[in-house]
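Researcher: Good morning. I'm working through a list of sequences from a screen, and I'd like to move beyond sequence-only analysis. For each chain I'm collecting a predicted structure so we can compare shapes side by side. This is the next one on the list. No need for commentary yet; just the structure.
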Amino acid sequence: MIDKHHFYLIFPNIFDFKGGIQVYSLFLLKAIQDVYIEANYDVFLKYDKRNLRQQQNLQFLSLTKFHYFGNLPRLLQTILFAAKIIILAIIERPTIVISTHVNYAIACYFLKLLTGIPYWVVAHGLEVWDIENNAIKLALQKADKIISVSNYTRQRLLQYKNIDSDKIVILPNTFDSSEFKINPKPAYLLKRYNLTNEQPIILTVTRMGSMAKYKGYDQILHALVKVRLHVPNVHFILAGKGDDIPRIKTLVTSLNLEDCVTIAGFVPDEELCAYYNFCDVFALPSKGEGFGIVYLEALACGKPVLAGNQDGSVDPLAEGKLGCLVDPDNVEEIADNLIQILQGDCSNPVVYQPEYLQQRTIEAFDFSQFRASLAKLLGGD
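Model: Good morning. Structure tokens for this chain:
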């Protein structure tokens, strides 16, 4: 039970980049602040630079101090980031320290050795599945609680020796259901991409970095060669940004897919819902997702979802009950399932029940559910 309310929250960043860890961190901060309105908050942001406008836009509690380290050279940044957390905590004695990246657990462990201040660590995906650094392993073992964002990641953590299974609790990713509604295909996007309302559209929204090929967009492109033989007017919208885009464009050309693939670039938050409603199936056959917030967003818009069956993607899809799970390395299987979904004969008829998909997703993963679950973990219910 937490009865004194001073939180130290250690995040990679929440303002300048939007990835799964960043989105989770922001929701975590909002949820704690909803539960503990009168608490003090110190938020340490390793990569963010000071941005008062973004702070004001997100409306944090007045007793929230942000500590930015994004302007520092990388080596100095790491040293000062850890040092400030430890020194300030020794002086201020916060109630608890929560880190949303395992790399910062070492500083938390060192602080606990000096002061006894408890710490929690959030475990997402790839960064905790195969830890080789013994110091990070130790810091994870000594954490008072490990919050796993999916059952899959929890099972991966249990493979490590000396981690108490009772410490590992699941607090899955969340989303703001008010932002995602079931709507007809938006006319302005049909016009933007010169497509018709009847045209079958496959959508992927993801990061396209050179280290993110595990996301499965290559496999969709290879599968598209077969898909278009059965669904001739299909169009694939690949949305996102990253340094892998030049290579992807070359692959599109080599597969002769230029007329049925659009690389749409970054999609701003205010257009995300429209893009989900634009498609007939959302596909991300990844094999490296800790969870995958995009699946929740697509399901909340009532869309059929195709995902990989070898990572945390199984959680938002309720082990396949709410979508289609495939072997992410099997291009033939991906192609066949996309064809079936688009032709209306998917083996899981639930994918054609948009209201049901939306309702089940909101019931399990809406922010209100996340906040209630977190309150119980913190003892604030």
